[in-house]
């Protein structure tokens, strides 16, 4: 028995302002010529009567009719694995349309300027590999589909920060760890190897950029931390240069994960331990996790990896009977020593670079 089947383009779930195409195909209809009659439910009699007069195989429903019941489409952007990077890292921005996933193409913008390298944004993912200093900025995306094109609203803003592999200015954190207990104190200081002044500590917290409070010269002191102090902190010069961004997390629970606030160099030893608020010492029995998977159980409350590799990079946390820490991203850097020939003919080691910087040096050699 022949059967009529309706298909909908671009999707059965559409947004106000989109043009929708309905098509009627006859399965098992053979070579018979068919005429078509369309019916609609749930609308006023005037539109229902005009709709039923359509005898075409395809029907276009455009802006302004009573089928348009869903709000304007909204794009949303998120970042993986994290928005605070060192030059040479890889990062992916993902653009999604809330409540719909079919038929969209995507456009990307940095600091409100349209990015022409669309191949990086294919399929809703925009990948920077390797990330470079000029990629620093605030990113948004927008999606479109159909003909004529229907556009979503612009997404939320997503900042990306990329710092150089060679740091003349360092942000020194005391205590030197990425996670901290609420009510504890914290000191952050910008240290310039050239001993010049003019650097201040700034931060990005809860979508707001501001100077670090209670700042004396290039040092910021927070007497009593709160969860609202969670964010990214960096050193900024009077001319607006940004250096050495670090992620600081404040936890109001009883357990934190103690790890290096800076990236770990490949081949070095990585030590993690669970710290309890009341004792301020490692908890004896703790489970350690990476990217959600259990990796070790320790009765010392401490986990050590003697030779770190890139595979150890990821989100780490610990768990005990007293509670669970927040997640910390641990970065692993490859290294190379760069030697300079001095005028005297002797050699000196000038810097340690990431693996991506090695590739750049090789290409420019």
TrEMBL record:
It comes from the Eukaryota. Residues 2-80, 87-157, 245-331 form the Ig-like domain. Keywords: Disulfide bond, Signal. InterPro entries: Ig-like_dom, Ig-like_dom_sf, Ig-like_fold, Ig_Fc_receptor, Ig_sub, Ig_sub2. Pfam families: Ig_3. This is Ig-like domain-containing protein. It comes from Cirrhinus mrigala.
